[in-house]
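Ticket opened by: R.M.
Priority: normal
Category: complex prediction / small molecule

The reporter submitted a protein together with zinc ion and asked that the result be attached to this ticket for the collaborator who will pick it up next week. Submitted input follows.
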Amino acid sequence: MPVEPPDPDVRVHPATTVAASPIAGRGLFATADLAAGTLVIRLGGRLVSDAELAALIAAPGPYVDTAEVAEVVNVVLPTGTPAHFANHSCDPTLRRDGAYRLVARRAVRAGDELTADYAEISGPGFRMDCACGVPACRGTVTGRRRRSRPGGRGSPRSAGPATPPSAPAR
Ligand SMILES: [Zn+2]
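Result attached by the on-call engineer:
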C-alpha cells in the first residue's frame, strides 16, 4: 500500500502547552477541554527507511523524533516541535488515527497531559522501560510487532535490540 506523503511540518493543536510532567521531564498538556476525536497532533517531516533512521539515530545530533508510518517507512519530525514533548503512557490520552494523526482517545480536560502509546507509533526495534504510573502500565514498551510474513515461522524481530530471553530483574 503506498504511503501518503507527510506534510513538511508538524501541526499541534493550539490549546496545548509544554510544562513539567509527572511522567518524565517535560510533557505536552491541554490548556482547554478537547472532545474525544479532536485532532491534537498531525505528524509531518520527511520519510526515511529503517536503515536511514538507524543511521540518523546513531549519528551525533538532536534527539530524533520519529514514528513508523508503514512497514520500514518512518517519518522523521523536524526538531523543535511541541510534539517532541508528548510522553508515552500505557493508558494514553491520544491514539493513532491513520499514518499521521494523533487524536484525543477520550474527552480531555484542560490541564490533562497529552500522551501517546509509543507502541502505536514505533517500529519493531523500539524498546523502552516505562514507569508511567497507570495501573495498566506494561513496564516495558516495545514497538508493534510486524505482521508475520506469509509462511514465515515467526520471530519477526530482525532489527533493533533483541529481547533477552530472560532479562535479569535489575
Ligand atoms: Zn507504562
